[in-house]
C-alpha cells in the first residue's frame, strides 16, 4: 500500500522545543473524494510562530492537540484530482502542515503558483506568509510613509529582511537592521540593500548603537523579537513613531508570567507613539496584489531572499528547533518530495 508521512506533536513543549517533542508517522496514502485533490508536497516550511501552539495553551490560535500534525506551509504538485479547478500537475501553495501529502478542497489559505521565474520554494517564503507579513505589517500596521527612518529586528530572517527591502523600495530615508552575526549583517548591507546593520551580540552597548544609527529617532520599529527589544527602543522613538509587533521569537519559549515587561511607557504620551500587532490573515483580500508585486520584484532581482534548506521530512523537527537557537539564516524550508 502506498504511504505518506507526517510529523505530529508527541508531547507539549516546555521551554525551547527539542526533536523529542515530535514523532514521525507513516499512514496510507489518502484518496481524494469529489471536489478534492491530493497534493504531493515538494517543500514544507518551519515557522517560529508555530511555537505558540505547542505548549498546550491557546494563543491567537488554538493549542495543537497531541498526536496532530504540526502546522506549516507547503508548496507542491497535484497528483490526483477530483476537483475541476485543480487538475493533475497544478502547482499549489497552501497551509498543509508537516506532511508529504495532503488532501485539499481549494478552500482556505491556498493558491495556484503562477508562471513566474522564481524558485518554487519562494511561495512559502518571501512570496508566502513571511513576505506577506512584511508587506502588510509595514504598509498597514506601521502605516509606512516615504521618508521614514526604519529599524528592523531579527532583520536577517525572512520577515525582517523582506520588510527592510520593501521599506527601501517604498522610499525610506534610512533602514537599519539588527541581526546576530557579522555574516548576517554583511548580507543585509551588501545584498539586501540595508543602509546599516547592528550585530546585537558584539555591540558594546546596543542602546548606544541604536542611538548612533538614529540620532533623530526611529520613525518605524518593525519588531520580530519581543518585549525586551520593544522596551529598549521605545525611548529612542521619534515623535509620532509607529511600532509594528510582527513576531516575538525571544518570548515564545518563556511563560507569560516570566516575560520581560514593557516599562518605558512615557513615550506613548510624550512622543504620541502608536504600537500595534498584526495577524496577516486579517488582510487576506489584499494577498493577490501584494504577491504579484513581490513576485515581480523577486524575478527582477529588486527583492533578495535567502533560504536555509533541509532535506527529508524527518529533518523537520531539528530544522524547527534550530530556529530558537538562532541557527537559521533566511527562510528555513525542508524538501519533502
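-> sequence recovered:
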Amino acid at each position: 500500500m502506498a504511504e505518506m508521512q507526517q510529523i505530529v506533536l508527541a508531547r507539549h513543549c516546555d521551554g525551547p522545543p527539542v526533536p523529542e517533542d515530535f514523532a514521525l508517522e507513516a499512514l496510507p496514502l489518502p484518496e481524494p473524494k469529489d471536489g478534492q485533490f491530493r497534493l504531493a508536497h515538494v517543500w514544507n516550511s518551519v515557522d517560529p510562530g508555530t511555537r505558540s501552539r505547542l505548549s498546550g495553551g491557546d494563543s491567537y490560535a488554538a493549542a495543537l492537540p497531541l498526536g496532530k500534525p504540526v502546522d506549516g506551509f507547503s508548496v507542491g504538485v497535484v497528483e490526483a484530482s477530483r476537483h475541476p479547478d485543480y487538475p493533475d500537475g497544478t502547482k499549489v501553495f497552501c497551509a498543509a502542515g508537516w506532511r508529504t501529502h495532503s488532501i485539499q478542497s481549494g478552500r482556505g489559505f491556498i493558491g495556484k503558483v503562477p508562471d513566474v521565474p522564481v524558485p518554487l520554494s519562494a511561495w512559502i517564503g518571501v512570496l508566502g506568509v513571511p513576505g506577506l507579513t512584511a508587506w502588510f505589517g509595514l504598509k498597514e500596521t506601521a502605516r509606512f510613509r516615504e521618508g521614514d527612518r526604519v529599524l528592523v529586528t531579527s532583520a536577517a530572517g525572512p520577515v525582517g529582511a523582506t520588510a527592510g527591502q520593501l521599506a527601501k523600495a517604498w522610499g525610506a530615508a534610512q533602514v537599519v537592521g539588527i541581526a546576530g552575526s557579522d555574516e548576517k549583517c554583511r548580507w543585509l548591507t551588501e545584498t539586501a540593500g540595508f543602509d546599516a546593520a547592528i550585530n546585537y551580540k558584539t555591540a558594546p552597548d546596543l542602546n548606544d548603537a541604536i542611538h548612533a544609527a538614529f540620532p533623530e529617532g526611529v520613525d518605524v520599529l518593525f519588531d520580530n523579537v519581543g518585549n525586551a527589544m520593544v522596551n529598549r527602543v521605545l525611548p529612542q522613538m521619534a515623535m509620532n513613531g509607529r511600532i509594528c509587533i510582527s513576531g516575538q521569537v525571544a518570548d515564545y519559549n518563556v511563560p507569560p508570567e516570566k516575560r520581560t515587561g514593557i516599562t518605558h511607557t512615557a513615550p506613548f504620551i510624550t512622543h504620541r507613539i502608536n504600537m500595534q500587532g498584526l495577524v496577516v490573515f486579517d488582510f487576506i483580500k489584499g494577498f493577490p496584489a501584494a504577491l504579484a508585486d513581490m513576485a515581480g520584484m523577486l524575478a527582477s532581482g529588486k527583492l533578495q531572499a535567502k533560504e536555509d534548506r533541509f532535506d527529508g521530512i524527518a529533518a523537520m523537527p531539528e530544522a524547527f528547533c534550530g530556529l530558537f537557537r538562532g541557527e537559521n539564516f533566511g527562510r528555513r524550508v525542508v524538501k519533502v518530495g
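The chain has two domains: 3-125+305-335, 130-281.
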